[in-house]
């Protein structure tokens, strides 16, 4: 039946079935009902826990980076540290914990720079971006099983230039650097 | 067996099984072998086709935006136009096609602004960001089944401000605006 109203409708979720459960997300098939047409259709939705990525700056203006093998692209990447939120954990607590576990770095009070939706079309979770300044290596690393991480330090301005030049291609890392850019300009102007 | 070499290893893919096939991606379980430990483990990888997002600018400096219901976040979003690459289609051809099909807008020659990896940890594909200037509504829209799109125009500078303020949260849309920012500054300086 043709729908006389052309404006986008708010489809109504009717329940879901689980297509797959993995260590990092569940894959659901969600049945949605179109409110005007009355038709129903299944759409696939990835449901991961919340993600947190960390802009960690050392006292000498370097960014803490992690190099690791990534199974999705079957290659090495250089990224900022990050990880999955534990149940009931806040984004700021995740940031402090993941930075310490992945890199051994500890810094000052974490500050939320922003929150993004990794992929609203097919994915339900959000990714928080947290700034930690005064980061210094003061702890032992505690990697998860299968994690092998090389910690690198690189001047913040060099990393920003790599984001602008297309050298950094990780979508969520680019989001973090983009949101940090004006904060970093202000930090430099204030001589921090 | 402890691995004496602490540097990240390049795991070797050994083959995969298919966990799920959906309209927008396949979900694989890929067996990888650690070259030094000799151990094997399965990792989940999403394999979608290539994605293309389009920065479409009208002659009066407005950006072409699309408002639609998104099943992943179960809510409406305002995004830039975009879509999936057909097999053997180039990113530039996808951009011209998707802009016309989704919005009815046609512009000048498409130009690649950059390419990002949506999620190297769990996802194999890339997302291309393409600029089309001189965009004007000159065709009928041709939506895919279940697409309902409201086309909006908004001044480019307003959209850039919304990206900076946190109002726009879509990771890949933010990537596109971030990569377009210096190009837009140059276009304005040249009075285009």
Task: Describe the fold and architecture.
- The structure is a homodimer of 192-residue chains.
- Chain A is elongated, with a radius of gyration of 20 Å.
- Chain A has helices at residues 91-103, 156-165, 171-189, and strands spanning 12-21, 26-33, 40-47, 51-56, 62-70, 75-79, 82-84, 105-106, 111-116, 127-132, 136-137, 150-155.
- Chain A has three helices and twelve strands.
- Chain A folds into two domains: 12-47; 51-189, Nucleoside Triphosphate Pyrophosphohydrolase (Alpha-Beta Complex), CATH 3.90.79.10.
- In chain A, 22% of the residues lie in helices and 37% in strands.
- In chain A, strand 2 and strand 3 (40-47) form a beta hairpin.
- In chain A, 41% of the residues are buried.
- With 192 residues, the first copy, chain A, is α+β, with helices and mostly antiparallel strands.
- In chain A, the strands form four sheets. In chain A, strands 7-4-10-9 form a four-stranded mixed beta sheet, sandwiched between helices.
């Amino acid at each position: 039946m043709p729908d006389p109203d052309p404006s986008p409708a708010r489809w109504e979720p009717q329940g879901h079935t689980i297509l797959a459960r993995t260590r990092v997300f569940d894959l659901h098939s969600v049945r949605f009902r179109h409110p005007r047409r009355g038709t129903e259709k299944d759409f696939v939705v990835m449901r991961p826990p919340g993600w947190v990525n960390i802009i960690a700056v050392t006292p000498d203006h370097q960014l803490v980076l992690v190099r690791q093998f990534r199974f999705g692209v079957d290659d090495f990447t250089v990224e900022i540290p990050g990880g999955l939120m534990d149940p009931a954990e806040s984004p700021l607590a995740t940031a402090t914990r993941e930075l310490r576990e992945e890199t051994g770095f500890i810094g000052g009070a974490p500050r939320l720079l922003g929150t993004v939706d990794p992929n609203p079309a097919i994915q339900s979770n959000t990714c928080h971006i947290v700034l930690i300044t005064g980061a210094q290596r003061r702890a032992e690393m505690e990697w998860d099983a299968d994690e092998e991480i090389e910690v690198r330090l690189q001047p913040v301005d060099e990393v920003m230039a790599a984001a602008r030049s297309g050298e950094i291609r990780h979508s969520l890392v680019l989001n973090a650097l983009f949101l940090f850019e004006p904060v970093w300009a202000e930090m430099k102007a204030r001589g921090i």
